[in-house]
Fold this sequence. Notes:
Layout: H1 25-29, E1 32-33, E2 36-37, E3 41-45, H2 49-55, E4 61-64, H3 68-71, H4 83-95, E5 101-105, H5 115-129, E6 133-135, H6 143-150, E7 156-161, H7 167-170, H8 180-196, E8 200-204, H9 208-217, E9 222-225, E10 233-236, H10 238-241, H11 258-274
Parallel strand pairs: 3-4, 3-10, 4-5, 5-6, 6-7, 7-8, 8-9, 9-10
Antiparallel strand pairs: 1-2
Amino acid sequence: MSTFTIDSGTSRATPTPVPGKRMTVPAIRARKVNGLTAEPLVMLTAYTMRMAQLLDPHCEMLLVGDSLGQVIYGLPSTVPVTMEMMCAHGAAVVRGSWHALVAVDMPFGSYEGSPEAAFASAARIMKETGCAAVKLEGGAAMAETIHFLTNRGIPVIGHVGLTPQAVNVLGGYGARGKSADEAKKIVGDAKAVADAGAFCVVVEGVMEGIADDLTKAVPIPTIGIGASPNCDGQVLVTEDMLGLFERTPRFVKRYDDLAARITTAATTYREEVRTRAFPTVEQTYRPKGE
């Protein structure tokens, strides 16, 4: 499948089509052979066309995460995120990518009620965005729904461990699995998700040993975030990884400090505007010959 970008005459998108074949669900699933993934899978979040363009060549999967509620909209959690938000941003990311498999988070309240309700929500997301998969939170409690969706042509990524949509029940975003009972439940949740038909599973915010055990216990790839380097792949919120926020979770490695760079650029721009150093002749329109 090729995604053709918009003409540069009306947009900042790349003017030339980029031919290529997207990663597929079977290709992602097939990366784990006999319990092992030789080359870890790379996943990052993306919410806009331009970010998708920049990240796409480097990732097997792009996740349009409901974390956009906090990152883009300044919401206190992912709970208020709407279907309209997810569909709009999902479509933008699909337009900006050609290589990575694009998955879109199902927002809180769009899938928990029943498998039928989940199917209606997932079908809408796939139709309106062109994405290849949806992601939903929950383990054994969501197994019936995952089975229902996958049997009706909707690929599903599971999500176990710390599940941010359940923050009000959990009481915060602390690491999960500190007790033996909770650790056992998390591994059981991952097995239930895999047995139900999910083609991979995100493992978030768990004690490292749990992620190791879980990765060995399920036949599908595990994607860690605050989990273990032994997971079959890793995902981070791109804006955290790029250093756009002052505070980042413990499990994030900041690969840049874009917040500081933006501050420096904006400061320089402000000073040049106020001193009339910008714009110069290079940035203004004049009759030819002047």
